[in-house]
């Protein structure tokens, strides 16, 4: 509003001059009359922090909220309902082990709620409750932080026919050569993954990292005219929830507190190293290592509140039952303990892992009984994160396929490899743009493959 400051008799919505005295009109300050809504619900977590005022949480973190009346603290609160914008933003629980992964839906109690964050970002929340017979609401937003998966790449090799001499001392060695259909063969891995995860400060995000792979099993063998097929009904975990890594890496870190960690226990070959600052460095030496590409960024303890370096999410961590390169159920020679997740705090963590699945074809020559073997399998590799007292949540996913046939050639007395249309051969595989934060499986690959060979 513009007003004549001389005669005080003329006002205008825009600049100009007074019609009476001709003085220039001057703008008057605008006065806003604001009415603030009185809050009726108090919402605090188990640390008595008000979650409605700039609350920052962590992906996978556990929440235990208590709702009460502000005006009448002794009033009974009933009928509590929480809307998190999307049903997948929170879960009641997520329990994983070497046989299954199960989600418990979130359901609040009359005046309190316990749940875990299953998505990151700004989560809009509407809390509704009944106090003394009157329905009241509170609206606010919570920021859920997540580790940054700044690199997640995979490079693949090719399916090959590999052969070993069963009994080199015999005079009939040619007919006793055992062949296998293998995705990758030394010195090349079938698929090699490179991962970089950053846990930014200043908010505490201490917890654990691990790798998890699930798969759909499908293998078919025709021997002497008879067909035998093994197939999982859905996804099963690839041997262990904690996908294996070994001591095939040498790592170094700066004096700022970085340290290397490596462990050997599975036929999955991988490496882990950590660095806490940009001045830290790590180097990996792996037999048969492949060149790695640069990927783009994307983007848990149990509910009992326990916190340890192991997995408290219901995982059954038995000793490694992984298969050898020809599918046998071999343990490592040292009898090492099962794979453990990597404890992490604020900093940068680099992981490497690989997979080279294979399946037996059998003898060549006159001892042969196999005509062909077909493999058509889908694999999904996950980078998993679990904050202290939280649940495991996937940070990223890479989907890859092994699709090939080994067919016996009666002319050459050898097995020939035929590549499938869906196979991931000689490719750079990129992370999925959309993936399940809480991957599900039912069963273990060893249940199907243990007796296959």
Mind describing the biggest β-sheet? 8 strands, antiparallel
Structurally, how many domains make up the residues? 3
**How much is the average pLDDT?**
77
**Low-pLDDT windows of residues:** 246-338
Class of secondary structure makeup: mainly beta
Shape: elongated
Total E-strand runs? 31
Based on CA atoms alone, the radius of gyration comes out at 31 Å
Characterize the structure shown.
- The chain is an all-beta fold and 453 residues long.
- The chain folds into three domains: 34 residues, no CATH class; 105 residues, Immunoglobulins (Immunoglobulin-like, Sandwich); 302 residues, no CATH class.
- It is built from one helix and 31 strands.
- The strands form eight sheets. Strands 18, 19, 20, 21, 25, 28, 29 and 30 form an eight-stranded antiparallel β-sheet that branches. Strands 23-26-17-14-31 form a five-stranded antiparallel β-sheet, with no helix packed on it.
- It is elongated and about 120 Å long.
Task: State the main characteristics.
31 strands; 453 residues; mainly beta; single chain; 43% strand; 1 helix; 3 domains; Immunoglobulin-like; five-stranded antiparallel β-sheet
Outline:
The protein has one helix and 31 strands. The chain is an all-beta fold and 453 residues long.
């Amino acid at each position: 509003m513009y007003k004549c400051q001389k005669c005080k008799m003329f006002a205008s919505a825009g600049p100009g001059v007074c019609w009476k005295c001709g003085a220039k009109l001057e703008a008057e300050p605008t006065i806003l009359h604001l009415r603030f809504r009185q809050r009726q619900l108090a919402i605090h977590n188990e640390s008595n922090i008000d979650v409605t005022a700039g609350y920052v949480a962590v992906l996978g973190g556990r929440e235990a909220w208590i709702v009460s009346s502000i005006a009448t603290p002794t009033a009974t609160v009933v009928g509590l309902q929480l809307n998190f914008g999307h049903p997948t933003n929170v879960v009641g629980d997520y329990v994983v082990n070497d046989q299954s992964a199960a989600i418990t839906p979130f359901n609040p109690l009359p005046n309190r709620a316990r749940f875990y964050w299953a998505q990151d970002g700004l989560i809009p929340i509407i809390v509704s409750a009944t106090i003394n017979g009157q329905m009241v609401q509170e609206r606010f937003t919570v920021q859920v932080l997540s580790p940054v998966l700044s690199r997640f790449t995979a490079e693949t090799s090719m399916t090959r026919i590999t052969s070993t001499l069963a009994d080199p001392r015999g005079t009939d060695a040619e007919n006793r050569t055992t062949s296998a259909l293998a995705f990758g063969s030394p010195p090349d891995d079938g698929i090699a993954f490179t991962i970089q995860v950053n846990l930014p400060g200043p908010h505490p995000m201490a917890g654990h990292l691990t790798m998890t792979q699930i798969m759909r099993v499908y293998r078919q063998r025709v021997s002497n005219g008879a067909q035998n097929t093994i197939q999982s009904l859905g996804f099963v975990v690839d041997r262990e929830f904690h996908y294996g890594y070994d001591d095939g890496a040498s790592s170094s870190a700066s004096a700022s507190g970085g340290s290397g960690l490596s462990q050997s226990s599975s036929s999955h070959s991988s490496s882990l190293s950590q660095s806490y600052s940009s001045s830290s460095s790590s180097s990996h030496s792996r037999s048969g290592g492949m060149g790695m590409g640069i990927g783009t960024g994307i983007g848990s303890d149990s509910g009992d509140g326990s916190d340890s370096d192991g997995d408290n999410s219901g995982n059954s961590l038995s000793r490694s039952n992984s298969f050898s390169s020809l599918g046998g159920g071999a343990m490592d020679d040292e009898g090492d303990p099962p794979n453990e997740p990597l404890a992490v705090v604020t900093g940068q963590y680099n992981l490497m892992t690989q997979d080279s699945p294979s399946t037996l074809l059998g003898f060549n020559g006159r001892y042969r009984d196999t005509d062909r073997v077909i493999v058509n399998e889908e694999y999904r590799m996950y980078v998993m994160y679990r904050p202290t007292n939280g649940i495991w949540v996937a940070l990223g996913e890479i989907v890859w396929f092994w699709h090939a046939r080994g067919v016996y050639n009666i002319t050459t007395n050898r097995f020939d490899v035929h590549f499938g249309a869906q196979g991931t051969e000689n490719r750079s595989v990129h992370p999925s743009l959309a993936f399940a934060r809480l991957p599900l499986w039912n069963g273990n690959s060893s249940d199907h493959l243990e007796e296959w060979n």
